[in-house]
Amino acid sequence: VLGCTAPASFASYHVGGRWINDAGSIIALCEKSKDLTLIEPSGKRTNFGPLNDITVPWVELANNATFFLYETRNEIHRRNSNGADILLEPVGSRPVLTADSKKMLFLSPVKGVPQAFLRDLSGPTSRQITDEPAGVAEATISRIGSQVIVSTLDCSLISIDLNNGNRAQFIDHMPKVDIPLMNTTYQAYIQAPQVPGSTYQVRGQNLSYPSIDKTEVKVAGYAVKPTGEGNGYFYYQTPWSLPVFDSMLRYPNYEEVIIRSGDPQWEAVIPFAGRLEVAPYPMELGRLASGEKIFAIHGDWRGYVTKADAARELEVIHLYYSGLGPVQPFVETGVTAPANPVAITTKTCDWERSGFKVLYSGLAPGLVGIYQLTLQMPRVVTRTEVSVSCSLDYVPYGSNLNTTANIAVRLF
Q1: Cα 22 to Cα 383: distance, rounded to the nearest angstrom
Q2: Are 14 and 51 in contact (CB under 8 A)?
């Protein structure tokens, strides 16, 4: 209908940039052919041609509708209405135009750290606008090109006056929540399925008291309070009274964990994949500079199990989990788990199918809503890494949720 060169539908989606200008003209991307067509309010259409190598759907349409900017392969290009394609920046991203379409603000790395640059499109040179130690996450420019607003990677919001260079900080280190990508099939940013009584970790930046002390969390409408915090993370416990479903709610039919704080004022929304009675998920205990994830502690509690200090055959190790389900005796929401008697899980989870012997599965004494799993390593190990995974009688959350913890092993 809109003039695709191949049978396809047009999409008005935009990950970034400006796909509609002040005059009401729209640039539309044909999903299959990658043609970009300009549609003016009068109905006139101009085909700007295909963008076969576009990797990021970021398009910035000029107000005069004679050209647009787009990002591809970390390059910034200009595409004119006559089809001419001009490389503006060999290393750049997120281009933004002023209202007169004469200046372009964009991001480009300086010693590996993204900074904001300004370029007059009548010439070939650009100048650096920011020198933020943490780097710039996003930047925009005022309509007349006199002021730049940047959001930094350490969650500050800064205004820069381009006429005199004055710099004003609107927000200093705002809290930010990192939302994990758990469901690769639907590319949906979702939290693990929520299980009554389980404690879940929220990671991010600048998450510390007094902010967390004044933070409320709602899980599917049920209010809870954070149970503790650390450097860049905090925990919340899902109430034991949370009703559950017998199967996973799949994206987009998700529910939400809503996190709000009044000091400073901020909100984060984390979709999650259903409410289930059991949905085991290993808790990451740390991460080394190399990127190695830590899931286990040595049986004698001397330290973490890592590649440098790996577990041995038949050694006892401890892991921590969320989502192992009901326990006996029952422990109230928000109450630390007892040491005598311990609260044992009542649902069957076959860890031994992975070759491990279960020595303990229940709430971790002294902690809130966190399960401790104590296992004995297999007798015969032929690899330098083994996987701990839970096999249930049913798999309510499908195969998209990674529930495996990898354990480094020292071979003899």
Answers
A1: 62
A2: no
140-189, pLDDT tens digit by residue? 999 899 999 999 988 788 999 999 999 998 877 666 776 654 433 333 34
Evaluate whether 307 touches 226 at the Cβ level (below 8 Å): no
Respond yes or no on whether the N-terminal peptide bond of residue 378 is cis (omega within 30° of 0).
no
Residues 355-368 have pLDDT tens digits of 788 999 999 999 99
Judged by DSSP in three states, 268 sits in strand
SS3 (DSSP) at 53: coil
Cβ–Cβ under 8 Å, residues 384 and 286: no
Distance CA 155, CA 177 (A): 10
Residue whose structure tokens are 């990451």: 284
Q: Which residue has the tokens 């083994």?
A: 386
Burial of 274 (0-12, 13-18, 19+ CB in 10 A): buried
Torsion of CA 286, 289, 292, 294, to 10 degrees: -20
Mean pLDDT of the chain: 80
Alpha helices in 220-272 (DSSP H): none
Write out 333-372 in H/E/C secondary structure. Answer: CCCCCCCCCCCEECCCCECHHHCCEEEEEEECCCCCCCEE
Rounded Cα distance between 304 and 302, Å, is: 7
46 contact partners, CB below 8 Å, separation of at least 6:
37, 38, 40, 65, 81
Contact 47, 35 (CB under 8 A): yes
**What is the reported pTM?**
0.62
- The angle subtended at Cα 106 by Cα 102 and Cα 111, nearest 5°, is 140
**All residues at 6 or more sequence positions from 153 whose CB lies less than 8 Å from its CB, including other chains:** 114, 132, 134, 135, 136, 137
Residue 190, classed as helix, strand or coil, is: coil
Q: How far apart are CA 69 and CA 80, in angstroms?
A: 9
Cα–Cα distance measured from residue 72 to residue 378, given in angstroms and rounded to the nearest whole number: 49
Phi (first) and psi of residue 354, to 5 degrees: -90, 0
Report the distance separating Cα 103 and Cα 311, nearest Å.
59
